[in-house]
Specification:
The protein is of the alpha+beta class and 862 residues long. It is 43% helix and 20% strand.
Amino acid sequence: MPGENLSRDEAHERAALLSVDGYEVVLDLRSAVGDSAEAVRTFRSETTIRFRRTGEGTSTFVDLIAPSVTAVTLNGRSLDPAVVFDGSRIALDGLADENVLVVDAQCAYSRTGEGMHRFVDPEDGEVYLYTQYEPADARRVYATFEQPDLKAPHRFAVTAPEGWTVWSNGAGEQDAEGVWRFAETAPISTYITCVVAGPYHYVTDSYKRTLADGTELEIPLGAMCRKGLAKHFDADDVFLITKQGFDFFHDNFDYPYPFGKYDQAFVPEYNLGAMENPGMVTFREEYIYRGKVTQAAYERRANVILHEMAHMWFGDLVTMVWWDDLWLKESFADFMGSFSLAEATRFTNSWVTFANNRKAWAYRADQLPSTHPITADIRDLEDAKLNFDGITYAKGASVLKQLVAYAGRDAFLEGARRYFKRHAYGNTRLADLLAILEETSGRDMKTWAKSWLQTSGVNTLTPAVTYDAEGRITELAVLQDGDAAPDQPTPSAGRPHRAAVGLYRLSGGELVRYARAEADITGARTVVADLAGEEKPDLVLVNDDDLTYCKVRFDEGSLATLRAHLGDITDPLARALCWSALWNLTRDALMPARDFVSVVLAFAGRETDIGVLQMVHAWGKSAVTHYAAPAWREEGGRLLAEGALRELRVAEPGSEHQLTWARFFAATASSEADFQLLEGLLDGTAKIDGLDVDQELRWSLLSPLAVHGRADETRIGEELTRDDTATGKRHQVRLLASRPSAAVKAQAWAQVVESDTLSNALVEATIAGFVQPSQRELIAPYAEKYFAVIERLWAERSIQIGMDVVRGLFPGLQDDEATLAATDAWLSAHEAAAPALRRLVLESRDDLARALRAQDCDRLAG
């Protein structure tokens, strides 16, 4: 937003000028429980920064976003805040070789999840605080040099309301005056400092380990949540995964966890999945499950726990110089999350989830007009905020999985060990890691990096097979980019892939692999010689075992086999790869949406992996909503609902499959009979053997009733009375906005667009309710309003709320050429708009254009 950005060039210049010796931050948070609105608007923040001038020049600036600054003192010299503070920066002139800066300010509590977020629990009125900074919001809480390469030790002291507990990165205790004082941290970047304060429910444990050198390591563990969630908090499982993760990373990294204690806080209204603050990791509280969930949900939580733990080394101990190399932490953490999950926990099939779920995110992001290399060109903080995306995370992790196959597991892990020891508490760039990996693998990492890290786009691999008269393979070749989708970014055609090709045949009602070969796929056409002479397969699966990052196509015979026998594939990873490939064909307008729905109806009921099944459900619903010809949508929706109910009735009573099908039935319900069943399940007059209709499932069952006008405000309010909690409130807000009424939509629009009183969580809930596929005509008038307000909104709101609104309210459900033209007109008329805003609109425009192509494909099939 204006005045709050920071460019890479500015950060580089400041890093060349100074180094930071330490921060002392004193916060007074007693105003958080004040009676008046003014009392809870701000808190006092006093920061002392000790820094040295190490380059040429005597002027710089310190970052601070605050309503007011009371005093600024530089080397004992008082500076006039009215002169030096512009709302986001404090100008500093006359620097000495050694400097002491003291800033006394009134900082604002946040309702957007950025900076010091303040949450009031509607259940009991308790107030909870936590901080969230990435990439650059520490400056909303204390004065900082807000860039990752200016690391320094931090020491925090916090005065909190009576009865509260306060946590930070280091170990803390309360002194006689009631002030919480915390141990000085190791040198860390400002964006990973943290404060959590309030009457949290707190559970403790410890991790003990004898290191290779005989040293005894003990790490105090803590886990916390709001008091209202304590009865649902399965801290034992959180601690189990935590200990298994520490075992894995200590076994493989040969560098003991360096940050003392390890607390994990599950906090309300969190914008992210989690954040890797050393010693004080924060998570969204939705990872505490209030009702029955599937093992896929526990797997997702475990993956996030391990992802954040991997950051203690990749990102916290060794940090990128600037956000260009964000992949140095996020790609590694995403890879290590799945790697450690498979090898150290009960979730041994995590690579199936990775192939089916995480990579789908990457494939979408890598085909957008905003695609970028994994090592991106990050000009400023707005660029950085938007690059926490599927490329940086999931594509980066996919490429690292390929790197392990390319360089070898031992060489990869030895490279990591040397990287930590050589650069501990420092900052690095791409070249630093590549140099070490070249040492350990003997491979040319620069060429590999150029192909995989410094180019964008996803390759498409397609098999081309010829047979002799007896039906044996005479040649099997893999064509690279032989079947690319139209209007997509061009990938590197010469990109090398280490990939496997599997041959499958039907035997005894099962589709099983009988031959496999690995090959280096290079150029446009690569012959896999080892498969010559094999019997004719029913299915050729390129990228078997998911070794590389690519989209997979099929030859004609293989595609016919999948249409008839996908559910007969016995290997869960191979089956997941085939589901993913069929979905990519649908998104690329090469397979009609109704054909994909037919495959879902035929085989989803046989899918054993719950995570894969949940993705298939999401894809099936998206196929009908976005990619089916409009004339077929109603029939497609009806078929999905009928299929869901059929599978729900035959699922094993009490199983997670039954629960998953119940939720999918609720998501697709559309007929009078459907609604009557949902109402019966809610009021107890209908039963499905084994289905426990707990509170979370009740909200799922009530949702379609609200969307279709069968649950009014009174009925939704009754459900809130049953569940008068923060989570219940979010559900209520979403359902209220989802009702099919012009007045309801006008109110929801005004609450999000014309007012800034809603918290981040309630903005998200309102948008989710506002946008309903069955209400296209009702929300059509807001398409024009959207383009009229987004530039103003982007300028006035925080970047997080701006992102939520611009993405969430884009009129993608008005899927016609007129909306595409309106989008193009806005882009043409706003070439000078903020690049980050234009990127969001361009991405939504691409989704719309893709949907129109897919609808044309489906229309022709009808």
